[in-house]
Structures are given as structure tokens and as C-alpha cells.
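Chapter review. Work through the record for LLM class flavin-dependent oxidoreductase before attempting the end-of-chapter questions.
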Amino acid sequence: MQFGIFTVGDVTPDPTDGRTPSEHERIKAMVAIALKAEEVGLDVFATGEHHNPPFVPSSPTTMLGYIAARTEKLILSTSTTLITTNDPVKIAEDYAMLQHLADGRVDLMLGRGNTGPVYPWFGQDIRQGINLAKENYTLLRRLWREDVVDWEGTFRTPLQSFTSTPRPLDGVPPFVWHGSIRSPEIAEQAAFYGDGFFHNNIFWPADHTRRMVQLYRRRFAHHGHGRPEDAVVGLGGQVFMRKNSQDAVREFRPYFDNAPVYGHGPSMEDFTEQTPLTVGSPQQVIERTLSFRESVGDYQRQLFLMDHAGLPLKTVLEQLDILGEEVVPVLRREFAKGRPAGVPEAPTHASLRAVREVSAA
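C-alpha cells for LLM class flavin-dependent oxidoreductase:
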């Protein structure tokens, strides 16, 4: 099972002192966080993609390419790549290039994002969001798997005898997670292709997450990719920790209360009760995260959001120390207990290449 972190790259004032980092500071902080993730033994660093303030990660492959050059083991991913407003040809080229530079340590999560105005900025219609996701991904898959592509669809100009370059490393395209919070059509898309399904459940109750993942698992089996438990599932989560839970609650409260995404809404107590947000001791985080398996079954990837809402870099790095030293080692051990032998591991470039070699033999 893989453990890691994801960032949305928000530039948010620190509510305790009113200071807002510059875009330069925030970008550099994201890099420092990724490097710290590898240092403390995490498996994955994922960055979002946004094209509007207060967010800065408009070019994920630029950032991930830089991080690739400064890391050795960390899997580099996205959370998410906008399949609806990016040209699938450019996605195919950019992520294949990143895959080569990172020696295969790359996968990506595809999604529609949560910013409605991004559609007209890139010449698209939000009312076609699901159809764009379906058609663009169909083309992306072909570009990675066929050396020469002829294509005619609804949303982009036709392609005639087109070859995307560079070709995927070792002939193995990056593994794709389809990210969705509420759209069964995306769970169906992931299941149809036998890809991964990532439910970023940071704002949703466990029952909703359970229903979405169960739908994906049933459809995965329906489309002939194996048993429901063979499906590849990832989850999101949010945590803030201190040795004493009272200290964690006291320190995080001003950040929660003023966060752009949920500040001035439900109380932190209500939010932690109804969603995966856990504010407390490392042991509380361990127990809460282990409970996710009760809703979705054995799964492959757990990512945490830890650097949002104006939290200063020093605090985030302290959180990563706690996560890497006290939480993830226990989670690895406990999730392994009782895990059926047939449950697949999280896909990597090496494992996908091995499958390809066996199929070609």
C-alpha cells in the first residue's frame, strides 16, 4: 500500500499573523514539502492543477520534473490533471516526457477539477464536462498505446497519421487514476478501462465514499478485469497532529475557521465527525485512517492533505515528521494484517512493465 501527500497549492493568509506568502514562496514551499516527503519515507507526492488565484500549480509537469531531479524514490503524481480543458495530445506528450525524466516514477490522476470558470478560459463548455472527460481520455489512451493515430471526435480537430512523442517509457504508459468525488460516470469510466479510481473524500461522509467505491468495484468486475477486490482504489484525507490532541485542536482551529474551502461554515467538531478530517494525536489519526478500510475494503493508496489553509511551512514539515515517523509505519503494519493474498499492490512502472513483458512472451 502506498502512502503520500497531495497539495492544492493555495496561497492563503496565515490567520494567526495575517501574513500571506508570495507566489514564489509558496512554490518553493511545495518543493520543500515534496523533498521532505521522500526524506520521511512516504511513497507519493501529488500536486493539483489550477489556473486561477489563490492557487499556483498551473504547470504540474514543470514542478514534478524539477522534483524528479531532486528525488530518487518518490512517485510523482497529480491531484488532478484536468482532462476536460487540457488537450489530450499535450497531456500525452508532457507526461511521457516526465516519465522519461523520472525513470518511470510517474502516474497521474485525471479529473474535471472544481473550478467552473476554467472551462471558458480554455474554450470549453462546462455543460459538456462528462463528455469531454470521456472523449479526451479515449484519445489519450490511444496516443499512448498506438504509434500512429487517426482520430476524429467532437471536441478537437481531427488527427491524421499522428505520432505522439516521446513514446511512453519502455512502451508502458503512466498508470491512470480517475479522480471523482460525486460523479458515477467517472467511476464507470475507471472501471471500463480497468484503471484506478481515486475518491478524494475530504469533504464527504463515509457512506457516500463507500457507495462510490462499491459502484466502481462492481463495474470493474462487470467489465471483465477481475474480482471486485482486484480493483485499484485510492482515498484522500486531511490530518493535523500534535502529541496531545488538545494542542492539535487549539493550534489548528484558527486555520480551519478561516480556510477558503470550509471556513466560516460548519464547526471543526462537526466537520471532523462527518468527514475524514482528523485533528488530534498520532494515535487518533492512525485509528481513523484504519477505519477507512471498513467502508471501501482493502485499498492501494492513501494520500493526505497537509499544507493548506495558510499553515506555515515550518508547521507542515513538522507534520510530515510526525506522519513519517509515528503514523505511516503503524499504518503499513496494520493495513497488512488480514489483507488477503490476492489483493493487488498499487501499480508502479516496474510492475506494469513486468505485466507487459509477460503478455509479450
